[in-house]
Specification:
Helix content is about 75%, strand content about 5%. It is an all-alpha fold. The chain has a single domain, classed as Up-down Bundle (Fumarate Reductase Cytochrome B subunit). Strands 1-2 form a two-stranded antiparallel ribbon. Helix 1 packs across helix 3 and helix 9 crosses helix 10. It is elongated and about 65 Å long.
């Protein structure tokens, strides 16, 4: 079976740093959001108390933000500054909108023809940019809460209360997106079940690439023949 390179080692490391720090943020954040529940109290007791929960949450936040912004800087901002044009395989295009409409028709059994995806499908780009937007929301609101006692001298307390609510809502939205959309896309979806292993190995099988990303497969094969 032939394999193709899909992710580089730095991309794999970035992904797992982001994923693991996200899990720590969820566990420590939700145990505060639902602090009165027995499960949250048991978890906090297990990890060493409220002070340790706060420390772990802030350490995970620093890893999460540093990894996320480091990725956006390396793969989007710096290339954009060099070329003055936002481009790359994750940048949304008009084709993604057409693919979205075609995908809806396909899943509603209105057509037997699946959209032909390139390196990344519209749903993968949607998850990606939802995460990029979300990291800005939790970063700003998290900073407000982190330095709330200093900020109370300069801004109304109501702003801090809004920041707390928005931070929690964004966290709930992120967990729902990961638990439903991402889990289905990389684990449960027919064609990848029981799991898409490319983020572990960095490689993708040729038959999987041909089925899931036919435009990329054709481009690679065309380049191989030209070479």
């Amino acid at each position: 079976m032939r394999y193709y390179r899909r992710f580089t080692l730095p991309q794999i490391i970035q992904h797992w740093l982001w994923a693991l720090s996200f899990l720590v943020l969820v566990a420590t954040g939700f145990s505060l959001l639902y602090a009165r529940t027995s499960l949250a109290q048991a978890f906090v007791g297990l990890i060493g108390g409220p002070d340790m929960r706060s420390l772990l949450h802030r350490l995970a936040a620093m890893v999460f933000v540093a990894t996320g912004y480091g990725h956006l800087l390396a793969y989007h901002l710096i290339p954009y500054l060099r070329r003055r044009r936002l481009e790359g395989p994750m940048v949304p295009t008009g084709k993604d909108w057409e693919d979205f409409k075609a995908d809806v028709r396909y899943h509603l059994w209105l057509t037997d023809e699946r959209p032909r995806f390139d390196r990344f499908s519209w749903i993968q780009k949607f998850e990606y940019w939802a995460g990029a937007i979300g990291i800005n929301v939790v970063f700003v609101t998290g900073l407000i809460m982190w330095f709330m006692f200093d900020l109370m001298r300069y801004i109304p307390f109501q702003v801090i209360r809004y920041a707390q609510r928005i931070h929690g809502w964004e966290a709930l939205l992120a967990v729902a997106t990961i638990a439903i959309l991402h889990t289905y896309n990389v684990i449960l979806r027919p064609g990848v079940f029981p799991m898409d292993r490319s983020m572990f190995t960095g490689r993708i099988r040729e038959d999987h690439l041909k089925e899931e990303h036919p435009l990329e497969w054709e481009r690679i094969r065309g380049g191989e023949r030209d070479g």
